[in-house]
């Protein structure tokens, strides 16, 4: 090997101290054997006499690219699937599980396909690979893949996917990997590793201790890399997440773990990456092409490398991947800014960052800081870009030239471990002859491609997908459906889903049904009717189905030769009511009642079944016969052949259909029953009752009061008092800066209810006594808040509250007094917008005060209230914002659009019994520690599909919770009523939220409401407690007058509760005096707050809560 000198080029190095790219112009790189020993300006270089000198004047010297995810054996498929989706790939087309693959590939084909792929990459500047080698379908194809890696001359981590095949079980695959891995020195260019994809399926219900055995074998064989696929989001997910890998101890301080794709990382998974130094491999072109989805990669850029995935589907070079990722991150961030009506000012992702992801980040992912960089001591994996091509000519910035302008044809030289692999634009033969590789590859491609070129049909067809059972099936299987309008209402965006094909038409439209059934392997038939009147819907649909199947069968037979008609299998929704075995234990009276009530439906169903079952040569049928169907949460299903429970939920029935479709173990049986695991009873839960919805297309929001613009005394007094308080007191107050300054709340609500100037002044003078002067030494912080560092102090340092106010006051001043622009800039920008942490919060922000304060800023159109709200939002930033920034995986067991129903289910959920033991703010930690998954289960159950209607619903619910959940007259929970005051703030702010953010805001609100409800021991709420209130000629004038003279009128929270129902009535109407009765109940009965219990450190209710004189 000896010395080599790359002389006179522009070198892209990496400065460890500055942690950034550094360019050295007119410099030389001196190599000794496999390492870089000097990077020096030409004038200073000392050249050994025996050194080979390569003149690179005017050229760019770059580290080699690192590809951390690829499947090399598939290279021979090139161009046969330009429109393939991931769903089609999973269906058995072109993957390692395809029967076509197993028959088409000879061992030499695997070798030549892999070798060509490595050489293509080397030609394009890839010097290191992590090859996810799932060529595991037969013993004879394993070793050829590894041999190709060795012969290529590239640096390769060859990670074999140990799988359990009928012809090649786990034991033999482990033996094959052992034979490969044994005796490979650490200095070898090719290192053995393992993929956990197939093994991870055995970790569930691990009776054979596969996990423990895998851990032992990784250590025994010294496997030097671990990789696996992980998708998340809407995709089926097994034991492949970063959290699972770290929890099971599969990561190692020595050996890398690279998780491929990982496009929907939860906050816990992101944390696991950083805590255990795991990396993900983003494959931009693949993820855009196949439809994986990639929503969170930009949030964990420090733990991201780049890969290629499938070089047969699209470009096979890393330049394209870096370029695509660079521009996609920019596009995503720019669109977020533009959607808020703002103009992008600075780029969120630089060319240098894109360059490092293709180079140094790959080295870090593989725990090799000596590759992917040019610096003294690094491996000599080096590229030389010529720079004279038309597309690069005139470059001055070498990094931009490489990432934005170069292509593989511009790479003149490639060195791996100090040896040339490409020189003067030509591949150098190391362990192979390129001409022979080319010849062998073309022969394999010509033979294999015709056998694999045609995609298989999407085999599953769902009929009745918009029914209650069908929609559960769709949510699990994501197969295709028929009715577009209803389907879109249930599953927004489903028509653009890559896994769904929709046929629009009636169940009796023969042509549409025929198209739908073409090439069907499995038909999921959930058509049903609960109509009491005579009907022929199901029998007519059955006749159409049979006619369509007969036509398809005849068309195949008319082609001549051996028939290619494959009889599909149908899973048919039926009923147990006429199956004597299933109803043997059911009371005869109940059987008679059910049969009589649904006689017309049963007659139609039975006739439809008879028609479909008449010709077994067309379709095989499995009848699924549940008991009485109820709208309940899923408790787990059981599929039986001898007896069933009387009732089963739609959720459990739908899940049973999914199991029958996927496992197919009951295909040879004519009928099965479905039961719930909850026992022999139908659970019918009472539903929460709310006042009726007032039909509205839009919401007319509460009025804003621009107090500074009105000359009358009352407005001027309010404006002066707000400014005076702003200059005198802090946003937080004693004890220990735990509580909040309610001055704007008190003044704002009193003003809106009509308080005169004297009452406003009296309110101010009373409240100001309990607040913290800004001169207090506890608020004298030495921290300097800047635009660059303010995020460092989120959720901490309450003494900074005044400093934050001063900072935001200055920001408003710099913006020419445009406080709304400052709010938008700081609340709604960035990958983790701060509005996501405003409704909930830490310490005493369980009452949503920053959000309420923000609403006052807009309602009173007041600058000083706005900057106070920003300060509160910083010090009280909700730690649970991560759940809004990146929604966790949907673990719900039911779905509803009613938040009242969610709370009703929480009320009855026995998993919360005794947790927490008593009401009080400290319960938050207990609940999240012990029952976080259950909280998220209920939170995820709430679906936002009509923001206008659901906003009205939660206004009514908040009144019912705050004023209709007391254990006795006069019982009002301090924290529960804050759900209503936060709801009022939500109304005020509704039109200020950027377009597209309303659903997210409602989700944050729902999480806040659920947590407050749990913290305060799940009080039952009852509409009757408000409906039974007697108005006796009282109206809102009486309520307001009584409130203004009330002995509790100086309490910081009293007016908020009075005003909420009044505003709701103004917007939604009287609703049979629901809101008025709530107001009367409150001002009549209120005599102090409940719900504090013992308080927390530094806060005592008997001392720190307002008590009237």
From TrEMBL:
<dbReference type="InterPro" id="IPR032466">
    <property type="entry name" value="Metal_Hydrolase"/>
</dbReference>
<dbReference type="Pfam" id="PF01979">
    <property type="entry name" value="Amidohydro_1"/>
</dbReference>
<dbReference type="InterPro" id="IPR036291">
    <property type="entry name" value="NAD(P)-bd_dom_sf"/>
</dbReference>
<dbReference type="InterPro" id="IPR006680">
    <property type="entry name" value="Amidohydro-rel"/>
</dbReference>
<protein>
    <recommendedName>
        <fullName>Amidohydrolase-related domain-containing protein</fullName>
    </recommendedName>
</protein>
<dbReference type="Pfam" id="PF14027">
    <property type="entry name" value="Questin_oxidase"/>
</dbReference>
<keyword id="KW-0560">Oxidoreductase</keyword>
<dbReference type="InterPro" id="IPR025337">
    <property type="entry name" value="Questin_oxidase-like"/>
</dbReference>
<feature type="domain" description="Amidohydrolase-related">
    <location>
        <begin position="60"/>
        <end position="419"/>
    </location>
</feature>
<dbReference type="GO" id="GO:0016810">
    <property type="term" value="F:hydrolase activity, acting on carbon-nitrogen (but not peptide) bonds"/>
</dbReference>
<dbReference type="GO" id="GO:0016491">
    <property type="term" value="F:oxidoreductase activity"/>
</dbReference>
<dbReference type="InterPro" id="IPR011059">
    <property type="entry name" value="Metal-dep_hydrolase_composite"/>
</dbReference>
């Amino acid at each position: 090997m000896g010395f080599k000198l790359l002389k006179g080029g522009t070198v892209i190095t990496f400065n460890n101290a500055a942690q950034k790219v550094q360019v050295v112009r007119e410099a030389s790189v001196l190599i000794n054997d496999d390492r870089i020993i000097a990077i020096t300006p030409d004038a200073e270089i000392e050249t050994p006499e025996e050194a080979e000198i390569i003149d690179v004047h005017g050229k760019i010297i770059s580290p080699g690219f690192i590809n951390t995810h690829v499947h090399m054996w598939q290279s021979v498929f090139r161009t046969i699937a330009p429109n393939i989706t991931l769903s089609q790939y999973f269906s058995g087309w072109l993957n390692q599980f395809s029967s076509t693959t197993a028959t088409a590939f000879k061992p030499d084909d695997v070798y030549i396909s892999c070798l060509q792929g490595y050489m293509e990459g080397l030609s394009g500047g890839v010097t290191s690979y992590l090859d996810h080698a799932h060529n595991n379908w037969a013993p004879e194809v394993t070793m050829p893949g590894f041999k190709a890696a060795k012969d290529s001359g590239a640096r390769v981590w060859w990670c074999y996917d140990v799988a359990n095949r009928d012809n090649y079980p786990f034991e033999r695959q482990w033996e094959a990997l052992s034979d490969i891995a044994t005796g490979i020195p650490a200095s070898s260019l090719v290192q053995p590793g393992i993929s956990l994809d197939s093994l991870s399926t055995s970790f569930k219900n691990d009776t054979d201790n596969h996990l423990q055995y895998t851990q032992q074998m990784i250590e025994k064989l010294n496997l030097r890399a671990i990789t696996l696929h992980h998708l998340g989001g809407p995709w089926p997910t097994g034991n492949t997440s970063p959290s699972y890998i770290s929890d099971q101890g599969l990561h190692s301080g020595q050996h890398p773990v690279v998780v491929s794709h990982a496009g929907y990382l939860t906050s816990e998974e992101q944390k696991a990456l950083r805590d255990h130094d795991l990396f993900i491999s983003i494959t931009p072109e693949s993820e855009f092409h196949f439809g994986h989805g990639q929503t969170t990669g930009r949030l964990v850029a420090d733990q991201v490398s780049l890969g290629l995935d499938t070089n047969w589907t699209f470009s096979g070079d890393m330049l394209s991947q870096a370029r695509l990722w660079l521009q996609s991150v920019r596009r995503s961030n720019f669109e977020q800014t533009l959607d808020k009506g703002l103009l992008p000012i600075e780029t969120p992702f630089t060319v240098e960052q894109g360059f490092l992801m293709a180079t140094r980040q790959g080295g870090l992912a593989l725990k090799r800081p000596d590759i992917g960089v040019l610096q003294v001591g690094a491996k000599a994996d080096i590229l030389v870009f010529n720079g004279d091509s038309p597309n690069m000519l005139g470059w001055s910035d070498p990094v931009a030239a490489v990432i934005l302008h170069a292509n593989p044809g511009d790479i003149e030289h490639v060195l791996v471990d100090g040896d040339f692999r490409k020189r003067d634009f030509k591949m150098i033969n190391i362990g192979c002859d390129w001409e022979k590789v080319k010849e062998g590859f073309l022969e394999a491609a010509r033979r294999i491609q015709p056998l694999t070129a045609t995609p298989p049909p999407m085999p599953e067809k769902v009929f009745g997908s918009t029914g209650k059972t069908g929609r559960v099936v769709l949510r699990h299987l994501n197969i295709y459906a028929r009715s577009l309008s209803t389907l879109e209402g249930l599953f927004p965006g489903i028509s653009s889903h890559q896994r769904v094909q929709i046929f629009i038409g009636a169940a009796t439209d023969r042509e549409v049904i025929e198209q739908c059934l073409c090439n069907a392997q499995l038909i999921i038939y959930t058509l049903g009717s609960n109509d009491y009147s005579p009907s022929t819907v199901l029998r007519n649909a059955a006749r159409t189905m049979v006619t369509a199947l007969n036509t398809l069968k005849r068309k195949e037979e008319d082609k001549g030769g051996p028939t290619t008609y494959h009889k599909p299998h149908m899973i048919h929704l039926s009923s147990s009511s006429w199956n004597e075995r299933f109803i043997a234990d059911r009371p005869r009276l109940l059987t008679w009642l059910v049969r009589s009530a649904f006689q017309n439906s049963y007659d139609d169903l039975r006739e439809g079944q008879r028609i479909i079952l008449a010709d077994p040569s067309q379709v095989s049928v499995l009848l699924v016969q549940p008991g009485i169907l109820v709208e309940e949460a899923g408790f787990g299903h059981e599929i039986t052949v001898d007896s069933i429970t009387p009732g089963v939920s739609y959720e459990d029935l739908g899940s049973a259909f999914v199991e029958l479709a996927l496992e197919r173990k009951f295909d040879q049986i004519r009928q099965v029953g479905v039961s719930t695991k909850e026992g022999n009873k139908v659970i019918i839960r009472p539903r929460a009752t709310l006042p009726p919805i007032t039909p509205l297309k839009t919401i007319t929001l509460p009025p804003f009061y621009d107090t500074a613009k009105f000359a009358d005394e009352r407005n001027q007094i309010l404006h002066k008092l707000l400014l005076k308080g702003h200059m005198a007191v802090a946003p937080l107050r004693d004890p220990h800066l735990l509580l909040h300054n309610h001055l704007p709340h008190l003044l704002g609500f009193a003003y809106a209810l009509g308080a005169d100037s004297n009452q406003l002044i009296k309110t101010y003078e009373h409240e100001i006594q309990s607040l913290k002067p800004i001169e207090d030494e506890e608020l004298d912080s030495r921290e300097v808040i800047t635009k660059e560092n303010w995020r460092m102090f989120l959720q901490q340092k309450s003494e900074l509250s005044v400093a934050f106010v001063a900072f935001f006051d200055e920001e408003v001043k710099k913006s020419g007094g445009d406080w709304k622009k400052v709010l938008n800039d700081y609340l709604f920008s960035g990958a983790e917008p701060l509005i996501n942490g405003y409704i909930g919060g830490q310490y005493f922000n369980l009452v949503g005060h920053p959000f309420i304060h923000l609403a006052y800023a807009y309602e009173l159109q007041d600058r000083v209230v706005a900057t106070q709200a920003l300060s509160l939002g910083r010090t009280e930033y909700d730690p649970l914002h991560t759940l809004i920034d990146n929604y966790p995986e949907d673990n719900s067991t039911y779905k509803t659009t009613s938040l009242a129903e969610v709370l009703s289910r929480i009320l009855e959920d026995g998993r919360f019994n005794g947790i927490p033991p008593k009401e009080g703010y400290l319960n938050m930690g207990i609940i999240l520690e012990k029952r976080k998954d259950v909280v998220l289960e209920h939170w995820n159950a709430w679906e936002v599909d009509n923001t206008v209607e659901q906003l009205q619903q939660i206004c009514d619910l908040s009144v019912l919770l705050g004023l209709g959940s007391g254990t006795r007259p006069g019982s009002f929970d301090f924290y529960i009523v804050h759900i209503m005051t936060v709801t009022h703030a939500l109304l005020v702010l509704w039109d200020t939220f950027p377009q597209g953010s309303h659903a997210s805001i409602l989700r944050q609100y729902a999480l806040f409401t659920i947590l407050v409800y749990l913290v305060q021991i799940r009080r039952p709420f009852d509409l009757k407690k408000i409906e039974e209130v007697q108005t006796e000629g009282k109206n809102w004038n009486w309520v307001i007058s009584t409130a203004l003279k009330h002995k509790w009128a100086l309490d910081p929270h009293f007016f908020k509760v009075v005003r909420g129902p009044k505003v709701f009535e103004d917007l939604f109407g009287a609703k049979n005096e629901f809101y008025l009765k709530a107001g009367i109940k409150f001002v009549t009965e209120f005599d102090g707050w409940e719900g504090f219990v013992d308080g927390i450190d530094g806060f005592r209710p008997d001392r720190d809560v307002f008590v009237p004189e």
